[in-house]
Structures
1.
Amino acid sequence: MQIIRHPDEMTAWAKEQAKAGRRIGLVPTMGFFHEGHISLMRRAGQLADQVTVSLFVNPIQFGPQEDLAAYPRNFERDCAMADTAGVTALFAPDAAEMYPAGCSTTVAVGAELTGQLCGASRPSHFAGVATVVCKLFSIVRPDLAVFGEKDFQQLAVIRRMTADLNLGVEIVAHPIVREVDGLAMSSRNTYLAPQQREAALSLSRALALARKRATEGEHSAERLTTVLQDFIHSFPETAVDYISFVHQDSLQHVAEIDAQTVLALAVKIDGKVRLIDNGKVL
Amino acid sequence: MQIIRHPDEMTAWAKEQAKAGRRIGLVPTMGFFHEGHISLMRRAGQLADQVTVSLFVNPIQFGPQEDLAAYPRNFERDCAMADTAGVTALFAPDAAEMYPAGCSTTVAVGAELTGQLCGASRPSHFAGVATVVCKLFSIVRPDLAVFGEKDFQQLAVIRRMTADLNLGVEIVAHPIVREVDGLAMSSRNTYLAPQQREAALSLSRALALARKRATEGEHSAERLTTVLQDFIHSFPETAVDYISFVHQDSLQHVAEIDAQTVLALAVKIDGKVRLIDNGKVL
């Protein structure tokens, strides 16, 4: 596996692959890999000839009060894991290479997709994501890119941006990978103390509860939301950021749930660790 | 010369050129060609193997009170002129192909470059320009793109965006092409009645006056501005939008002019036709 630090070097490598007729699959990450990341890399390997993983903790997608400095990092372990997963090139640029002095361009997707859910409490987050992914697509020039469905709103934002800017990259969605007990894998899970880890299960269990009630015939988003809010708050460490039933593509709230509805959840544990999860309920 | 209407078809054509090792030079335009456009096309032909011209009156760079509907068009004449100038492919998409329903992504360059000069009176203009040029670069995949220096701020904005988003396109600046009497060529010149045409000369003459005074030793931007304002307003049809002495790269105002200073002018003729011009004065 090649480790590439400079954007220009990355682009030169990508151009060589294209010249040789090899398809590149990109997996954009912020590192600190877990099974979720590895499954994205394997998926990319099934769909493309060369897998490139970008490892970049993107400062502009963190708000001023968020965990940029504390975000977990372990470069050597990540390299070993990516190598084992069959990654051909690991692109790990410095922030100063990605955002040199004077850099001021932002890519933003409209408020229909970015104003609600995580966008409500993280106002500049999705512009930060769209900007860095647009840059990564220009630098790595992938034929396809694989994103996890755990970041459900991010996926919708990236699909929108890719279509709107004619970026010509196929966006592949990969299902959420979970721990045995149901917790959605996340690099931020390492923040959780044992008692908090238990409270974190409230998210996946709320999804299961919603599925049960929906299957029994309860299709009112409002009534289901009340049930889920009570359930999640029965874990004393939790505070609900949002419980939203939205259309899978438009991300607009729905009153009655159906097969196109996604339940999206964000919960803070002890006011510190913010976890998200989502899934269909019908 | 091939005329291409659909973005996907344009990209397919561009990929073929790349595969054959041919370099593409792009000239983005809004059509209604004059000698200025033709000189950009010829320049692109000197620098690249294939010249692609995009002809698209981009709705999102016009403000609600601006001249989108009235903007002059003559597709057949444009085709003939481009063909004669050696253009290989003319990309002329419909607005509905460029901005399909649901499209909501914007590319914006920071206020340092877009908040002053034309950006002050046209607040969403440069986001419209940056967005469409980003799209055109993705669709046409040029090795280089040629822009006229007449749109001096646009050039700075596009350079910034291209660098910031790692678009990998070489930006080539081409000098202003003028009528015999000095008027900078512009599709909007066709709006001018004879008396207005005379008043329009106030811009290039103001540049000449500034050059004369600067060479004589007047380097104060404030005093030069007063001289130019009085001169331009001696044409009764004129109203100055701005007279600005700015650094050529940063576009920030300077108090004392030097060899890096650009004088940028925008003047409205009879409250309707807005003309711009610019140049070095030292």
2.
Amino acid sequence: MAQSQNVKDLAAARSLATFNVPDMTNYIHGSKENVEQRRYIFSLIEKEPIFQKKDWAWLNHTDAVKRGIGMSTRLAEIKMENDLNDYDYSIMLEAVDDTLPILLHTGAFIPVITSQGTDEQHEKWLPSAQKFQILGCYAQTELGHGSNLSRLETTATFVRETGEWELNSTSFTASKWWIGGLGALCTHAVVQALLIIDGKDYGAHVFVVPLRSLENHQTFPGVEIGDIGPKAYGGFSKMDNGYARFNKYRIPLDHMLMRFSKVSRDGVYTKPPHAKLSYGSMVLLRSVMIRQAGNYLSRAATISTRYLTVRRQFNNPTVRRDTTNPQLETQVINYPMVQNRLFPLIAQSYALFAAGQQMMAMYFRMMQDMSQGNVDALAEVHAMSSALKSYCTTLSGVGVEECRKMMGGHGYSYFTGLSHLFSMVIPSNTFEGDNYVLTQQLARYIIKEVKTARTNPDRVTPFSRYLIRATGKNANAFGRETCSVAQDQDWLSWEVQLAAFEHRAARLAIELADNVEGTADGNWSDHNIECYRISHAHAQYILVLWFGQAIRDATAASADEKVEGPTGQVLWKLSHLHALHTIQTHLADFVEDGYLSPGQCQSLRRQVKALVASLADNAVALVDAFDHPDFVLNSALGAQDGDAYKRLWDAAQSEPLNQRKVCDGYEEYIRPLLKRHGEVKL
Amino acid sequence: MAQSQNVKDLAAARSLATFNVPDMTNYIHGSKENVEQRRYIFSLIEKEPIFQKKDWAWLNHTDAVKRGIGMSTRLAEIKMENDLNDYDYSIMLEAVDDTLPILLHTGAFIPVITSQGTDEQHEKWLPSAQKFQILGCYAQTELGHGSNLSRLETTATFVRETGEWELNSTSFTASKWWIGGLGALCTHAVVQALLIIDGKDYGAHVFVVPLRSLENHQTFPGVEIGDIGPKAYGGFSKMDNGYARFNKYRIPLDHMLMRFSKVSRDGVYTKPPHAKLSYGSMVLLRSVMIRQAGNYLSRAATISTRYLTVRRQFNNPTVRRDTTNPQLETQVINYPMVQNRLFPLIAQSYALFAAGQQMMAMYFRMMQDMSQGNVDALAEVHAMSSALKSYCTTLSGVGVEECRKMMGGHGYSYFTGLSHLFSMVIPSNTFEGDNYVLTQQLARYIIKEVKTARTNPDRVTPFSRYLIRATGKNANAFGRETCSVAQDQDWLSWEVQLAAFEHRAARLAIELADNVEGTADGNWSDHNIECYRISHAHAQYILVLWFGQAIRDATAASADEKVEGPTGQVLWKLSHLHALHTIQTHLADFVEDGYLSPGQCQSLRRQVKALVASLADNAVALVDAFDHPDFVLNSALGAQDGDAYKRLWDAAQSEPLNQRKVCDGYEEYIRPLLKRHGEVKL
């Protein structure tokens, strides 16, 4: 078969790039070594039969869980066979591209024992956990409770006679629910339960609980376990999210993790020295989710960009770019409407990658500080990770579905790969802190910072220093502040953009602080809409800041792996587009206090359009640079070679219905209907 | 088992209503008779085994198609047994709640033959089609072409020797694709193909094409058919969307539908008298989609409202409403953030219902006019239906997913019912005219109207009369126009709201018209972002207008089935909330030319919050009034009795995994891993 027009189109678009794609890939993933390691790890997964994805579309939850178990155990074996570290393991998971029953074993079971267990407890469980001789999950959520730990209804009651704990599900709604790994795979769980001694409730604590026999995998008496069934959009289908109920189930005293809180053999309870020492793992999880948000969105943008490059519809001479064959219709990606929807999502992907890296770095710095007894950064890092998790995962969820919709009719096929991707990204909007509830963290933090800015500006933390220009002796000038843009070109300044984001965040923060202060205590809930607004405003400011910093650092003369001129130039364009498109999307916030004038609004819209148009030649190269292999994309329409129609056709051939000459149900249903009123001659 | 707290909570919330729910239901569905007929038709479906939904979550596409065939044929039988008309049939489909292979038989095959066939052709096919002795689908879209009919690659070539048509798929991308009913069920199709006589292309025409033998259901030689495989999010799984290729496949001359265009036995082609006579069916389809958009959103709002009423989390004394049991946590629906997300969606549902009814009425009036030779309304109705389809289905798609997210963790379970609903609503954003492309219809129309307003204002059509205040001698005053609101209370005026929507739509229309005029011809694509803005702005204006009119008519002294005082009052609150929340969502449009001042923006936000809070007592009653039975909602969390946790538990028990003592894959996968490093004693 001759090379299809699709393949030619993608190759031609690729050749238009003004920058060096491998350079850009190194920038995105941090270094050349990272890129090579990532490819190597991907190759380990891609060659394994159990990780092939061809039949995923047809697996229902029941069958998918068995596959998930097989994938889980093979993943553990590969990790051990290759002696891979946690980072490599996380790349394996990127290649596997599905949630698996084993995820929480390394993602929560081992980390919780590590951070909250004593040295003896480490010795007891960690070696066998690391060798996968036991498999664990993390059981917090119940049927009736998610966020509110203090009202959990699973209890661990101290039994004075034997010095044991008795676990009980004290009500119907006490059933542990949603627990990944619990339904089928795990032998153990760390369980959050209310600690009760002599009728006194000491709040939620963590216990290591054996669930299933290591000999025959049957649940122990007193433990009732099941799977909670299918999830929305066919997501998490290979994950055995489960439920568990405990009925007077006894475990030894030392199964309570006692690094911080302790209970002695005679039932004396000792409080932890620091209340917030366990925040670290929440910050880590949220930082990972921010990185993932960029990864998911960049995959969707890759698929959409490639398909829209090869899809042609209508022949519009004013927007066509290729002049060689005027018979051909216009490539869809050349329509300005499409570019104005798609290219900002490419820019967002780049911004999210930068944010993910900075957030991870910030987390590691904080952990290092904390290991030396310095907890100064904890409050800011926790607030930042909450705000960014909420904003970035929201952006990613919306963006992935937008990429699918942009693909028009064929976008509704499973074979785009975007259906699976959406089902993976969208739960991130509601778990690990619901994206709305979570914004209260940043809001509470920023209100404190407003107070600090007013009373002791020197002590304002780095990322809320924008408050200083709006408080104290600066307050009056701030009220009159306006944007300095005089002509369209002026928008192309990182400083101008930052000034706008700072102004808007400062205004919203101060309005919130004043409103909360000005009203009776205890009506915090009334301000939650404003909490959401300031949290996202702050997150947007941070994204613009960090993306610019990342480019500045990568293009600095002293940079280790310096990004060369043209690559830096296109990165700055992306940064400008990301910043200005974000302003445009939330324009009211910038206009309603007079910071932007009507003329500046029009000018902004023009500049966004101009930036979008200026990226057209680089679109395909920009998504190529993410370096997502076909195995990961698993998309008929977004593959590297661009052969979209051929691949869509081939994918359809794998439908089992097409192996039959006449469909199931003909004799049973169709024929009787057709013959109900006798024969017809046509 | 005692009555659960969940059940008590929903009953208590229900009892707070300030209006009469049956009155409201009659208003929503048009009359008491409609409500009773709807319930009767629902009962016909609910009692049939083939329409039960309990195992839907586990059916993959392959198995689902067989179910879809069984449901299709039973649907046809029930229609015949009960002699149901088209309207009743559409209510059956609402109860069935899934896309079925038979849908296009009555939805397109019969209507296309009816509207485009001659009397002889009616006689040939319609009686057997109506008795389901033949089953048809509608084959337009191809692998390579959706919207652009003139570039279809399926040809019907006139064979002079025999007077037949020879159908050919002239390229790989000519394969018909996405055709509902084609993959498994249908015996016939109406096929869009380019009509070729003596090498001359006369453009796309419609042909009735036999596909499968009426004796054994095998495809005829020259016809190749298959199923295109699974769709995104598990949607349309029971639908056999198929592909077809034709290889020199001959059909008789009179299989071309010849009511408008004709070809004689000697190959002489006659053009149709009117180019746009076939627009009617597009308008109908889009009008139905607008009605459906309201139906889908109202179902999601029902589920979410009920669940959030029974879900309790944290004990927040400032927002709790029930004082009887201070031990209980706060009902989630009482948090202002939740109310401010949820109640505007309830209001939107009501607005969409009103729009659906008005649009259908407008369509029927137009068809009556056209049957008397009057085509005056066609252009306006076509533009309106395009704008409203785009806006309303977008709103509904976003709203359904927002309802799911509001439900937090449990919202990701399949058993919410919202996963299925989303998969049903979301393709409406890209089919029957992509929601972005479609906005060009209204834009083209409104540009013409701007010209008319400037030259001959008396001839401006009814729904764009707002242009007159912005053109001609009014133009200067328009530029200085500002909103009249002086205090929060002033926002509660339909006239004030309409004035704002009119001002904004007029401004955007005139800006677009001037820009298009001011630049070189042929660069229409450059303005498509602005087309999108004006189209949605116009649609929002129409929704506010029609919703208010519907309430005014229903509460008028002369109304047949008058809505009583309290019902009318709460309807006006919904109308205000819908209008003001829409302004708030698109605030920049109203601010950036100075129509709203900073103070008015703040005032608007306060009034939206106040309206939301004032609806709290009526929330459950307002969704009850939609009258969606449990069978249709198919939701563990949103059922009429509110017993959410119990139903979620019961649903999980139906998971086949839970029928096994030890999971599949234990011996094969888990045990070898656990034993890989020998025994462990814990």
3.
Amino acid sequence: MFRRFLPTEFNFFDLFERMGVLAVEAAACLRKIAEDGGVDENALSRMRQIEHKADDTTHAVIEQLNKTFITPFDREDIHRLASEMDDIIDMMTTITNRLRVYQISEANPMLVSFAKLIEESVHAVLCAVRGMRERKHARSVSDFCVEVNRLENVGDEMRDSALAELFRREKDPIAVIKWKDIYQDAETVLDICEDVAHVIDTILVKQA
Amino acid sequence: MFRRFLPTEFNFFDLFERMGVLAVEAAACLRKIAEDGGVDENALSRMRQIEHKADDTTHAVIEQLNKTFITPFDREDIHRLASEMDDIIDMMTTITNRLRVYQISEANPMLVSFAKLIEESVHAVLCAVRGMRERKHARSVSDFCVEVNRLENVGDEMRDSALAELFRREKDPIAVIKWKDIYQDAETVLDICEDVAHVIDTILVKQA
Amino acid sequence: MFRRFLPTEFNFFDLFERMGVLAVEAAACLRKIAEDGGVDENALSRMRQIEHKADDTTHAVIEQLNKTFITPFDREDIHRLASEMDDIIDMMTTITNRLRVYQISEANPMLVSFAKLIEESVHAVLCAVRGMRERKHARSVSDFCVEVNRLENVGDEMRDSALAELFRREKDPIAVIKWKDIYQDAETVLDICEDVAHVIDTILVKQA
């Protein structure tokens, strides 16, 4: 099925870079949704399209893994990297879907801030996987991983202040229920980016 | 402890089939609870009994695994299959318990629909593990796994429309809190069935 | 970084015991917070300090693991034991943080009961890891693991009755949202202690 849009020749690095590019596209889409203050049919179909491409790419990694004897690094690490990069995108689809199901129809500045932070984090993830192609880039890959970890800490604080503000100001319990879930999901995207950075770090250590 | 109700001679396929049968019994029990609109002492004790039997069967798989040199497929896959089948049943116990703790006392047509979908899914899981005994059934096992995946997608849509309806109609925030949890738990049962189907698929691929 | 407070000579058992001691300290801190009915700056900074020490100790285990050829038990089990002991402490930090973000400012007897139960459980975990140093203590280690499992069951019942009471008595939906999360987090600490006991059990079985 992934053959529809994947070139017949590819290697693991191409596939990981593709996942990174898709994550960046998903984050841009999420930011637009946050700024527009709701999910229209266009945005929803765009996000689902990205998710399908990411699923196909993940399957391509696994299929490639089954056919390949020599891999650039541990088979298990390749598997984890692909599936956790897929999780980043899935979590952004989950947020999009939640905004729709919860019938959110106003822009929320805090969600816009989260979306921008997510954009920064997935961009750093993309740079890290791009750098993995060559051992001489190990140091810069490591720097991108440090940046992803830093952004996760920023995200933790952002979620805490978003929740504190929500419980302080919002008097409508239904709105509290909705936004609590959305803020937590947003922070979870950054957690998963950190997991990806951790897998990349592990790979670097083994190759050092 | 599991010796109380397990025959002294058994093999892995018997144990997996037993888990499948227990999952089908738990799903029937859950549907009855949903239709009755609440958990009475009988239903609760029936569900707990099924859960204990499932725990014992899972322990039997692990004990058997420790004593057996040659296994029909990867030891790790056997372990995962047993523990994820156990998770299916645990999640149904969680729902039962939640209905009781949340003092739900009216029938909810949406929960009945979920319970019926869960019944279909665990039935397909049972058929899949039954078919694993013989390699010539590989194709039908695979079909049952496809069916479990299909039902998970149906479950996703069911949860989304259940939640959308809940946020649109329900004005009592406490009722929103309760039913949101219950619908999400119900969908999680289908997620775990999909995980089981995925393990079975992996086993089939390795044996092909 | 962990060199700041770790002796230069240490072994895995020392590190696990250190994690156990930190878990006991975190539990005492959590109980004090629960009794005081809120998180002040002192308590918050104390809990974060413990969390940092636990992180450093976990990293020390992993670094030691990378440098050591012969380990007292499976490398993977050492890794899991360290990371799950770290999770115990992380979960207590999560609760502390949640109490602060949710602006809880009254003592809650149920939370005090949970904190006492957590203290008992982490104390049993500490005794279990202490006993792992010598094979002749295997039986008492096993007894401590049984105790951790028992306390997890007590915790399940405590959470159920806390939630049932909450839904029965509390009319403010925002308070329901807050305490539901807190009780569930508290029970999760006991779940993670049970996971740790399970890892220890696995190690004992392999060494028998």
4.
Amino acid sequence: MSFTGTLPGLTSEITDQFETALKQFVDSRDLPLYKMMSYHLGWVDQNGEPEASAPQDRTHGQLVLNVASAFGGSLEDAMPYAVAVELLHNFLLVHEDVQNANTERDQRPTIWWSWGPAQAINAGDGIHAMARVSVFEQLKRGDASPDPASISEALEALDNATLEICEGDYLDITYQERAAVSVNEIVAVARNHGSLFGVAAKLGGIAAGASAKQIEALNSFGSALGTAKNLNIDLKALWPSDGTERTEVQRGRLQSKKKSIAIAHAIENGSPTTRRRLGEIFMKRVLDPTDVDEVTGILAETESRRFSEAKIAELMNEAETALNQVGLSNSDNESLLSAAKIIVESE
Amino acid sequence: MSFTGTLPGLTSEITDQFETALKQFVDSRDLPLYKMMSYHLGWVDQNGEPEASAPQDRTHGQLVLNVASAFGGSLEDAMPYAVAVELLHNFLLVHEDVQNANTERDQRPTIWWSWGPAQAINAGDGIHAMARVSVFEQLKRGDASPDPASISEALEALDNATLEICEGDYLDITYQERAAVSVNEIVAVARNHGSLFGVAAKLGGIAAGASAKQIEALNSFGSALGTAKNLNIDLKALWPSDGTERTEVQRGRLQSKKKSIAIAHAIENGSPTTRRRLGEIFMKRVLDPTDVDEVTGILAETESRRFSEAKIAELMNEAETALNQVGLSNSDNESLLSAAKIIVESE
């Protein structure tokens, strides 16, 4: 299940403020392009009419606020950064939906499915630019603007995280067409994608005036938890929670042959027969549901799920060690760690 | 023909330096993602091996240098901005190739055609991020770094231009599916896309320390010439220069029913029979070459080409008026105007 609530360390008042800030920022531009963004973010229907759709996962933005608040930073200063990271995350989702041909996300038709791939690519590009414009525009409004150097640091961190994610995406897509993918390769890609939570934690620290050393440790904390989450997303696609069916996005990932740590483990450690069979399955252009069932059957034999879960636990230890270096109070540490666990466990 | 030479006001030494700066920046990251970018930019083949491909149009970056040099600004300071604008332009091309399903650009297979749409979307996103990273990274290296406020101004200008272009793209794509598109609507979209040359001229001014008023006038100059160029691109697709065939990109625009100012003029001013016939043609999902011939035949009857050329001349006057407000020397004014003419006339 995706997490649509309030992370520990924040109040529902704060998350409401965050949702309002996000919505006001997107609504501040009154053109059809932004209606498409509002649709994706769950506020309007395809005709641009207000719609109370199911709440969405906002953990990327919430982590920014969470970290800033652990430092006693002002939420007003952190809000534009939270909006920026949340939009960065959503630009990636809009493009992922085109790349994996997902017809639905959060039980609603995706942008590409409703408006076509050309509009979806364009909407994603727009959200990408909006992510940074939010930092410029909102910081201008506030009375207590951070200094230009820290704005610049935040923007640079956003762009570098985006590049790391693109570097990972390149590999991820390449691995779709390869059978021989190693555990190390999969973990490296998950680390690339983990930089999104890394930059979230980092921006919380920048907004709250943390030291360079603390910001570095926060980045490591966020990256490690983001890496764990990315590995876990694939496990959840393979083994949905009891009583739930796979979502469209989960099916999209499996059938387009995205490789998970569990699959890489079976490819590396399976018997020659197992490996040959996996190779045959992944030679198909697109997998069908029975192929996916056969893959999960094979992974049970190779104990690849247990191996993968151990790797995720290891990354959570890495996140905890990094967080301990930040030097927060015990209670702030605890609350950020519980937040991290919720993020990693949710889809 | 696309313009691959050196704009008036620059020397071939400077454009060589620019090409080197662009290449060094992309090459500074040694990962497969960047090889795909290098391929798109014409330096390597699909296997990442050096290839001396035909030179490409670099007028976006050159205009930055041109303006900076007219102000007597240091080329070193302007170079990262030139790299940024050139990359911004190229990120848009990579995504346009997916959106219009162009198989070839500059006589070479496009990224999406060679690596698939998922990789092309990702490569474009990466180039988009690189555009701004160049400003951060290269300015750090230089001795004479501009102040953080002007870096911030440049970055904000880049993001706002990108958003304007996305706003225009939204409409441009919508108009593909509509027959009733007005001249004003087409000119408005061309203005949106013109903001790319607007930001090029603006960044040249920022790099050279121009005043706020001058930067505003430079932006108007660049936007007007960019608007004229965008209108002209469509005319050139309709009526290729004597003795040349339509390129793949030109065919892609016409067959995907992108509307030009000439078509909008005929739709607004044609006889009822003409309008009905245009409506029938644009009801097709994709046009074939005989449809395109019929459209150009109709446009000859309605004198839509002459009308469009007059509009372009009007925009060039607008560019000239804006440039006169900058207060440069006569010779610098002349050389920027000749550069503008070359940009508008090339494809």
